[in-house]
Amino acid sequence: MILAIFSASVLLSCLPFLHSATDHNISKSICPKDFICPKISPFTYPFYNTTDTNCGLIKVNCTSYGGEIEIGGESHEIVSKYVSDPLVMIHNKTFERLVNKTRCEALAYNFTSPSPLLYSVSILPFITLYKCTNHTNSINTSTYFQQHNYSGYDRCDDHDFYYDYSMISYAEFLHDLPPTCQVIQLPVKFRGPNDPQVPDTTNIFSILGSTFSVSFNLSTPCHKCHQEDGQCNIHNGLFQCLDAKKEKSRRELKLILGVAGSSFILILFLVIFITWGRYKTNPFSYFSSKDRSLNAEDGSTLFHGASVFSYTELEDATRHFDPTRELGNGGFGAVYYGKLQDGREVAVKKLYEHNYKRVQQFVNEVRILTRLRHPNLVVLYGCTSRQSHELLLVYEYISNGTLADHLHGKRANASLLPWPLRMNIAIETARALVYLHASEIIHRDVKTSNILLDHNFSAKVADFGLSRLLPDDVNHVSTAPQGTPGYLDPQYHHRYQLTDKS
Fold it and tell me: Three-state DSSP class for 210?
């Protein structure tokens, strides 16, 4: 039996090294020269199909009606493609909606490359806009552009925009721009020589178009890397060319390291297995009997007043914890979008581990949230039953992501989060903290990724796994510092004393 375990562990421990050593060569050898989507000309490198993820830089998803191309994390419908040129005509529905509604966000839309070290993106036809802050020296800025016969648009709150329709697809920029201005290029409508319609050049939105051509041009280092049968990559913000020949010479070394390390992995596995055996019983068995009660009215089990859900119910709600439904993850667990049978949309947190520390954090969050009710705190609907083998928490679903997403993440857009709105978010967060402190609770992990925003950009403070009770009759609680580095109170970190000012 032990021999069988040893043999299996050796094989399993070697597999990652074997895969790592051969993955690059395999991916290069099986990459197709081109691929075709319905009704569209063939695609070649740097494009890749969703079935060949290691074969290019720009993802194309073929569909029954044609295809979609992904630029900067956003999908665009492909209208057509030139046969021998990396030039693709696309339709941007998001930009179209903003233009049709004459939203100022359209004038600040980003059409640049997400990876300039790998390739650049250019659009045709385009118009050059100058986006200028209108809080200071607005008169001087307006005079500057009037001297160059530029039209202006001044109906946005924080910025004015200047443009010259006669400069369509003209790449040269004005020199000596005012310091508060920046250059933006936006697509305009295609116009043929026989087009009878004369555009209203005084209305910038009547000029802009949502169907346009995009050219993808490899950077010089990436083009050279591809010519040498390498794979372009970005690592720690620096360009990297993965050399297939060098990777091949490293396979034997990785294999030797894998075999040599398997013995150590076996010993470590046995230690972990023996230790885990002590805790393999249901983690909820550590809950004290006083933590559980029975609702006499409907017979449903409650835990500290929170409704208890079965694991099967939450598994169905999240479609078996489908990775595409993952809303986010952190050091303690992952959060998934779900929909309960009664129609409620929920966010289900699934803790990574079942050890006693995680159980304590789980119980701590349930105890705290069930006693709190505030418009700027996330609502806990319930948790899993004590018979479940998973630690799951069920919260209300907040649809607009985290404050961190909007400040410096995938939703970042300065025009969607102006300073008055940011101030309101700060005030609502402060109100939530005042309420917590009045309830003798210290959060201990307040940061932008733990502040959710609903559809009205109202703040909801979340994640109470590290929170502590601080009774009124004491000035502090002595405890080891916990939280996120960079957000901790220096005195708390130095003195190990948690106060309401921490």
Answer: coil
Q: Using CA atoms, how far apart are residues 368 and 468, in angstroms rounded to an integer?
A: 9
Distance CA 92, CA 114 (A): 17
Give tens-digit pLDDT for 424-444.
Answer: 999 999 998 888 888 778 777
CA 388 to each of CA 230, 349, 392: distance values in angstroms, whole numbers, following the listed order: 49, 14, 9
Q: CATH 3.30.200.20 in the chain, residues?
A: 286-397
Cβ neighbours, 10 Å, residue 301: 14
Look up residue 41 and give its DSSP letter: P
398: helix, coil or strand? coil
Q: Enter the tokens of residue 488.
A: 């901790």
What is the CATH architecture assignment of 401-502?
Orthogonal Bundle (1.10)
Which helix (H) or strand (E) segment is 66 a member of? strand 66-71
Q: Which string of b and e fits 249-274 if b means at least 16 CB within 10 Å? A: eebeebbeebeeebeeebeebeeeee
Active-site pick, 52, 445, 489, 500: 445
- Encoded tokens for 405: 């997403």
CATH 1.10.510.10 maps onto the chain at: 401-502
Q: Give the whole-angstrom CA distance, residue 301 versus residue 289.
A: 13
Identify the three-state secondary structure at position 345.
strand
Tally of CB atoms within 10 A around 433: 17
DSSP secondary structure string for all residues of 359-375: HHHHHHHHHHHTT---T
Residue 189 in marked binding region: no
Q: Which CATH class is domain 286-397?
A: alpha beta
Over the stretch 265-291, which tens digit does the pLDDT of each residue have? Answer: 878 877 777 766 654 544 444 444 344
Rounded Cα–Cα distance for residues 142 and 130 (Å): 11
As a whole number of angstroms, the distance between CA 86 and CA 213 comes to 10
According to the 3-state scheme, what is the secondary structure of 246-298?
HHHHHHHHHHHHHHHHHHHHHHHHHHHHHHHHHCCCCHHHHCCHHHEEECCCC
445 is catalytic: yes
Q: What is the mean pLDDT of residues 62-69?
A: 87
Q: How far apart are CA 417 and CA 157, in angstroms?
A: 12
Could you give the percent of the chain with pLDDT greater than 70? Answer: 71
Length of the chain counted residue by residue: 502
Token code pair at residue 155: 């109906």
